[in-house]
Amino acid sequence: MTLVCFTNPWGFVDNSRDERNMLKSWREGLVFFGFAGRFRFFRDVILKGSLGKYFLPETSDDNGMGYLMRQADREVSGREQRMSQEDFSQERPDFLQLCLEARMDGKPLTAMQKRAHVTLLIQAGADTTGTALGSTIRFLLTHPAVFARVRAELAAAADAKLLSTPIQFEETRAHLPYFVACIKESLRLHPPATNLFGRVAPSPDGKVVDGTWVPAGAEITSNSYVVQRDPHLYAPDPEVYRPERWLEDEGNSKEHISEMDASAFVFGVGPRVCLGKDLAIMELYKLLPETFRQFDFDMKEEGEFVVVGGIAYNERYQLIGSYVDATPVNVSVIEQPTISDDKETGNSANKDVFRAESLPAPERGDAPQLSSAAFGYLGRTDSSSLRRTMDYSLQNHRSFIGSKVTDLPTPSFVLSLPTIKKNIERLHQDVEKAGVTLRPHVKTLKSLEVTRLMLGNGKYKRVVASTLSEIRGLLPLAEEGILEEVLYGLPPPASTIHLLEDLRKSTNVQLMIDHEKQLTIVEKFAAKNTESTIQPWDIYIKLDVGSKRAGLPLGSDRLTKLIQHVNNSPAVTLKGFYCHAGHSYGCRTPQEVEDLLTVEINSVLSAAKLVTGDRKLTLSVGATPTAHVVGTLKAAIPENVTLELHAGNFPTNDLQQVATSVIGAEDQAIRVLSEVCSVYPERNEALINAGTIALSKEAGPDPGYGKVVGKPDWAVVRMSQEHGILGEVQAPGSKTTEPERRDVEANFDVGDKVFLNVQHACITAAAFYVYYVVDENDVVVDTWVPWKGW
What keywords would UniProt list here (predicted)? Predict the structure, then answer.
């Protein structure tokens, strides 16, 4: 970059070293850079005042950024002195020359502006482009199949005499499409600059951004690390390095590739796009293919991708290279420097380390939070301890695909894909046999993957959702045409109406009510928005059939009045009635469950008779226990109603479901993998690393909070926040007196991995950020990332 800026290089390449510790100083200052860039008062007031000298480098410094500033001043003054001479000529224009000539006839740049322009290009362009180069090389060397294809493409283009030496930019773009795809994919996953550049919503009315209202004065931002893992664009594998996604001949539409290109956020977008973008792309397209054409590499140390203050670099990254077709005698080691502690001052190189985890595209928080994925800030931490400061499974969950389930970190949430598919298929068959339709509830496994399975990939087109984040997470299915209706599964809080209305722009969001004041709130909202295209809401009235949660009982005057109010309101349309037999979890025989299903059906049929006029209503019944017996349904359903079954836990099941006797223990698809930390023979107990926040404190008919798989006499009998105590229990129906089955040391040892069946799948699932999906051989075949938030 010094060559580009000043024509004369400063020796970094020739001497193979970090001259005057400028790179080291740059990286050590990234924490401060990130802080100053985000806090305007500090930047605009403190740094520009008398206190600024205590924070900023000085041109008198002999090393680091101060030395860079001094050298830049010397270059500027020397060039200006030469330009004042009549015989001045610049054989090859450099960046400095362009800057100095930019305002020759207008208001000239100040001395500080001249220095800032040239030093910024060096600071912003040198290390970030090096990061992009290094990340691409790392990805290729750690993906042998991809690297082999790159080598083959290079060889074929060279044999066809399509490449110059060195390779030209246009040649790479025209003749090496797979290599270009590799570069794009590397930049997507490892963007060199993940800085947050805020934008302030205008006054006085704020602004609607992507369907979400942002109040005036709120600052919002985007982040390339997050945007470029958006599952809406990169499904089904946004975390996977797969260059083929960028190629038309790999089955990708030209339109989708154009959308990915347009959404690329590596260099920013709009009027503030990186001015060095074209230079960086040229370097990548020329240097990378020529490097692999000339050299073979082995990875000595993979290192890690670190983000500090909004800038990324590769730490502890080393390659061993040799010329192609040459004996690797003279080996060059290419190493990215590591920032270490300052031994003299005792100052540790603390860094602001950021980390993002993909959630489906619409996982956007309420205004002004507009991120398309979960973005986690890990605080000030040394980058060398990155892997200690966040859940290892969150960093690398895709890397466990192909591993045995017992190789997973503990505790982990494990799903049996064959069991899930079997459970879903069984309910689909029962629903079809009963002549009803299905509306799955998405609150258990909040993910696109299982929702798609529950809907039969579009066979059924309705769901129930309990949170706004679930609805947002479902929007990709609505865009595909798989999903048409989303029922918000509880009486809506008043503060959510405008948010639900925004979501109605993407799919048909329906409301559930059980109180006239809820209807009044909806009516007032509609009255205030008469200028918009708000359509009447589809409304379900919730009935209480004995579970005593939400809902109105049959025979209630309030129910009659609510029906009348709904019928007379222009803001809503009565879609039907909804009930939920939550107390069916307390049933212990199939007959008890069947009786409650009959109560549900009779209740909604009775409510439908209270509605005047000729209309077709949807009557929605169900809880997972009653859903399990829908195949026994014998009730006569009138032609003027549609009977709908809703359930959420049926793909996974749990110990509470097993206790109803309508399913078997083999129908449980969830296990929590835990590890024995200690054993206490004196009290016949063992300690595991799964407690309340991994299992929940839900109890059930089976004793304990989680049952050890394969050991019916052992369960989690006590818990603290992170730890559980395995103790001996009397399993239902168990009459064993075998001593070895009841002795802790005969069953558990320190370091053992144990699987636990859980009492309540919904609450346990909510505790985890990654679901590990296994096949019939207990090998991890996929990972699902659930939607989080409310």
Answer: Detoxification, Heme, Iron, Lyase, Metal-binding, Pyridoxal phosphate, Zinc
